[in-house]
């Protein structure tokens, strides 16, 4: 284990018709294995820890969902540029099964701490359940941008993966 990040927070959501918004306040901290650092003196420890507030409005129309918002870090142990923006879109492909949908999604993020370099991810897969209720998603994904892990934030990261997402 080289790195472990912890995310803890509270979310509040509001929906009216096709419009929704989410307000989230969260804490993120990153911890590198101490034994690894003790035996690898060339690794500089980044003790990343911060609290952030974020708002994310969204609009849905005929299977499409478009969202755009941003956030700010309001407290951190080390100096982190506070501002970030995020936006994206998703399309649910109708199927003859009401509880199963195919989906295509794209997400884009930029942060002041990475000089607004674009992080992008693309997903496609199967959604079991309804979009705004409890569901499970199986997805193939491609991610290109900076790593989001605290210790390694700012390092180039590009990968393909298979992911499972649970919405509780």
Give your account of this protein's structure.
This protein has a nine-stranded antiparallel sheet with strand order 1-2-3-4-5-6-7-8-9. The model has no long low-confidence stretch (mean pLDDT 86). It starts with a strand and ends with a strand. The chain has one helix and nine strands; from the N terminus they run ββαβββββββ. The chain is globular. With 168 residues, the protein is mainly beta. It has one helix spanning 34-39; strands spanning 3-16, 19-32, 49-61, 64-76, 83-93, 100-111, 119-129, 135-146, 156-167.
Task: Give the secondary structure arrangement, pairings included.
Elements: E1 3-16, E2 19-32, H1 34-39, E3 49-61, E4 64-76, E5 83-93, E6 100-111, E7 119-129, E8 135-146, E9 156-167
Antiparallel strand pairs: 1-2, 2-3, 3-4, 4-5, 5-6, 6-7, 7-8, 8-9
Quickly describe the structure.
The chain is 4% helix and 67% strand.
């Amino acid at each position: 284990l080289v790195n472990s990040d912890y995310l803890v927070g509270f979310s509040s959501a509001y929906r009216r018709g096709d419009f929704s918004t989410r307000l989230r306040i969260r804490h993120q901290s990153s911890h590198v294995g101490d034994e690894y650092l003790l035996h690898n003196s060339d690794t500089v420890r980044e003790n990343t820890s911060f609290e952030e507030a974020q708002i994310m409005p969204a609009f849905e129309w005929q299977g499409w969902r478009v969202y755009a918002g941003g956030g700010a870090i309001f407290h951190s142990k080390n100096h982190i540029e506070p501002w970030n923006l995020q936006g994206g879109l998703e399309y649910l492909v109708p199927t003859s099964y009401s509880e199963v949908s195919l989906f295509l999604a794209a997400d884009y993020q930029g942060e002041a701490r990475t000089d607004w370099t674009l992080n992008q991810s693309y997903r496609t897969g199967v959604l079991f359940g309804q979009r705004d209720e409890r569901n499970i998603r199986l997805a193939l994904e491609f991610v290109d941008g900076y790593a989001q892990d605290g210790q390694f934030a700012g390092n180039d990261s590009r990968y393909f993966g298979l992911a499972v997402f649970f919405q509780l």
